[in-house]
Amino acid sequence: MPIRINLLAEALAEEDLRRRDPVKRSILYDALLVALSLVWFSSTWLECMIEKQGLSRIQTEKQSRTNDYSQVLNNQKKIAEAQKRLEALQRLSATRFLQGNLLNALQQIYVPNVQLIRMRLEQTYTAKEGSPAQTNSYGILISARPGTATERLMLLLDAKDVSPNPGDQVNRYKGALAGQDFFKANLEPTNGVKLSNLSPPQSSFGSKPFVLLTLECRFPDKTR
User: Fold this and answer.
1) Helix or strand or coil: residue 128?
2) pTM (2 decimals)?
3) What would the pLDDT profile of 68-118 be if each residue is shown by its tens digit?
4) Topology of domain 99-133+147-223, per CATH?
5) Nearest of 169, 165, 152 to residue 116 by alpha carbon
6) What's the confidence (pLDDT) of residue 96?
7) Which stretch of DSSP H or E encloses residue 116?
8) Cβ atoms of 217 and 193 closer than 8 Å
9) Using an 8 Å Cβ cutoff, are 165 and 216 in contact?
10) What is the pLDDT of residues 96-107, one digit of tens each?
């Protein structure tokens, strides 16, 4: 029987041994794990980027809505301030001093031998700014204070007393002025009419002797 000799048997055995080497298998497994880890990291990183883009979009939208809300609050504040000013102007218009009533009252006052020469109405307004609501250093909220305007009125009347004894009718004219319905209702209750000037008796060519007088009519201050 013929004898067969395989000269490559030893090489094949060594190759098979290398193929079955556990170190090589371990390296292959590790390489596979690294590849899987890279795939997982890439997918996770991609998801993170997508989430960051979504978060950035939401933050931008939130900021936009916050700005819109702040603008709405600012507009509401301006509207409220304008409404307060309009109401103040309406109150001022409704309670303003009507000079027609004053002139009508003056023409109803008659004292013999007393002539009204001149009238001057001094009308001034003093404005006081309001203050917004604020919190003090103790954390206490201080309410807003609206602005106000104070009206001051003073009527000056220059008259001439040409009575036979110049000056006799001064007090009578003063009393008639203070007792007239309009002035009685609108002047200050005390010293509403005051004699501020009285000249000595004097005369001019072709006229009776006379005295000149000036009366101050004070109205109460009105704050609106």
Assistant:
1) strand
2) 0.55
3) 777 887 888 888 777 877 776 666 666 566 678 888 888 899 999 999 999
4) Alpha-Beta Plaits (3.30.70)
5) 169
6) 62
7) strand 114-128
8) yes
9) no
10) 666 788 888 888
Is 110 strand, coil or helix?
coil
Q: Which residues contact 106 (CB under 8 A, 6 or more apart)?
A: 116, 119, 157
Write the DSSP string, 142-159. Answer: EPPB--EEEEEEEEEEEE
H/E stretch holding 133 reads none
Residue type, 180: Q
Query: Measured between alpha carbons, how far is 121 from 102 in angstroms, rounded to an integer?
Result: 10
Spatial separation of the C-alpha atoms in residues 132 and 134, rounded to whole Å: 6
- Compute and round to an integer the Cα radius of gyration of the chain: 51
Both tokens assigned to 49: 């980027």
Q: Which tokens is 17 given?
A: 């041994």
Helix, coil or strand: residue 135: strand
